């Protein structure tokens, strides 16, 4: 009998995988808490929450129960002209906790579609109002997804190289690294002064795919305050940072000024199922609320607001809002902080950075890049130790599910220490 891994090789094309260099995929047959179990019975510590989605552990019994109850009642139905309790309840609950208390929830399928909707909403908002604001601003090295609009507002990189000619123009401001935040803020203001900017899109506090690059809330506040001053919409892409990764429920909770649009996905369902949300202000919704049908938002997906998936999101919110979850996030924060202090003077390390439950270790290299040879060395080192750490170039990071225990964190720290010792 061929194994799943062998059968996979014949028929599957994996995402973000150099299929020639990495033909073998590990076949997972079971998930339990922070552990993934493969077909040979090996247990892997999921230290990156399976691409940053999982909040409460794999196959969490409470989420599984709520999903199966909903699937037995109503698994799916069309969401144009129809609605259902899970979608309405989820929207009510999200609107209650989202920064800036937005007014409306638009559902889609994943992080990229949540961003596509946000881009379309903001461009059409100004169009509907008869104002010539067509420019979008983003941060250098940003990552907002893999569909074309989301790629356009993402930094130009190896991810987008083959499509450069097909991406619409976006103005990029420098990332606010230490010493250059004033220049970044000034660059934003210079662009906003031209009075033709539809929206500024940003990953608040942490640029995930860029290599967990972090900046302070005072910079985010300065960006947002400028956008308000120059009447430009703010899109906060909280696809990765949302649902507690940076400490508070949302990264934008760390500042006073609120975004006009918030994009959510990943942790929205506790990582159990795919769902995208684009939340917007009443003012944005009102610009589409018209007898003139050219002003409506022409966007929708077959599985918009799938009730089974909304049930997963509701169950995940129940778990997220328990005191125990807040305490776990604080515990992870403290553990990362103590660990950082033990390694941050290592000569091979350029920088250790932390925001909330995310810790990133950047190694010194002459030529940092996504495909740096160090990446594969590190990936294999940790996989051999049955720890899933998917480095981004010369950066490794831990972004664990909140249910991770101290002893499980220690397993990851010990493996990193061992890696450092052999450098
Ligand atoms: C900030 C951010 N936005 C959008 C996306 C795209 O989300 P998805 O992979 O669900 O399309 C990601 C994915 O990593 C992300 O980190």
Report what the structure shows.
The protein folds into 2 domains: 4-60 and 323-421, Aspartate Aminotransferase, domain 1 (Alpha-Beta Complex), CATH 3.90.1150.10; 63-320, Type I PLP-dependent aspartate aminotransferase-like (Major domain) (Aspartate Aminotransferase, domain 2). It is globular and about 65 Å long. The strands form 4 sheets. It has a 7-stranded mixed sheet, with helices on both faces. A 4-stranded mixed sheet has the order 1-2-3-15. It has helices at 4-11, 49-52, 61-73, 85-97, 111-128, 148-152, 181-192, 217-229, 282-288, 307-320, 323-343, 373-384, 406-421, and strands at 28-32, 35-38, 43-46, 104-108, 135-139, 171-173, 197-202, 206-207, 213-214, 233-237, 261-264, 276-280, 349-355, 358-363, 387-388, 395-398. Helices cover 37% and strands 16% of the residues. The protein starts with a helix and ends with a helix. By secondary structure, the protein is α/β, with parallel strands linked by helices. Pyridoxal-5'-phosphate (PLP) binds next to α5. Pyridoxal-5'-phosphate binds next to α5.
């Amino acid at each position: 009998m061929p194994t799943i891994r062998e059968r996979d090789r014949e028929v599957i094309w994996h995402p973000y995988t150099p299929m020639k260099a990495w033909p073998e995929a590990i076949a997972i047959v079971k998930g339990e808490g922070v552990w993934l179990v493969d077909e040979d019975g090996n247990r892997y510590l999921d230290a990156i929450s399976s691409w940053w989605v999982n909040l409460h552990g794999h196959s969490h019994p409470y989420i599984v129960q709520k999903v199966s109850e909903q699937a037995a009642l109503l698994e799916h139905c069309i969401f144009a002209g129809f609605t259902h309790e899970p979608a309405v309840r989820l929207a009510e609950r999200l609107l209650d906790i989202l920064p800036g208390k937005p007014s409306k929830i638009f559902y889609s399928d994943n992080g990229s579609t949540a961003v596509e909707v946000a881009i379309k909403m903001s461009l059409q908002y100004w169009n509907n109002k008869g104002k010539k604001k067509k420019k979008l601003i983003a941060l250098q090295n940003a990552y907002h997804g893999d569909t074309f609009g989301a790629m356009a507002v993402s930094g130009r990189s190896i991810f987008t190289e083959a499509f450069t000619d097909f991406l619409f123009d976006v103005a990029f401001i420098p990332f606010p690294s230490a010493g250059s935040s004033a220049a970044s803020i000034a660059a934003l203001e210079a662009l906003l002064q031209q009075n033709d900017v539809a929206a500024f899109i940003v990953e608040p506090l942490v640029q995930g795919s860029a290599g967990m690059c972090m900046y302070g809330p005072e910079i985010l506040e300065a960006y947002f305050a400028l956008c308000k001053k120059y009447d430009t919409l703010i899109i906060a892409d909280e696809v990765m940072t949302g649902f507690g990764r940076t400490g508070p429920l949302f990264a934008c909770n760390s500042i006073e000024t609120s975004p006009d649009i918030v994009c959510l996905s990943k942790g929205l369902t506790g990582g159990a199922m795919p769902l995208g949300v684009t939340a917007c202000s009443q003012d944005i919704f009102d610009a589409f609320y018209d007898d003139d049908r050219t002003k409506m938002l022409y966007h929708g997906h077959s599985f918009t607001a799938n009730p089974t998936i909304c049930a997963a999101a509701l169950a995940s919110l129940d778990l997220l809002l328990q005191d125990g979850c807040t305490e776990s996030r604080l515990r992870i924060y403290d553990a990362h902080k103590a660990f950082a202090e033990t390694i941050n003077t290592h000569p091979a390390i350029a920088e250790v950075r932390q925001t909330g439950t995310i810790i990133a270790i950047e190694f010194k290299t002459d030529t940092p890049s996504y495909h740096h040879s160090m990446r594969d060395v590190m990936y294999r080192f940790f996989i051999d130790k049955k720890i899933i750490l998917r480095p981004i170039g010369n950066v490794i990071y831990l972004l664990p599910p909140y249910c991770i225990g101290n002893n499980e964190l220690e397993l990851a720290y010990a493996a990193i220490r061992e890696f450092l010792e052999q450098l």
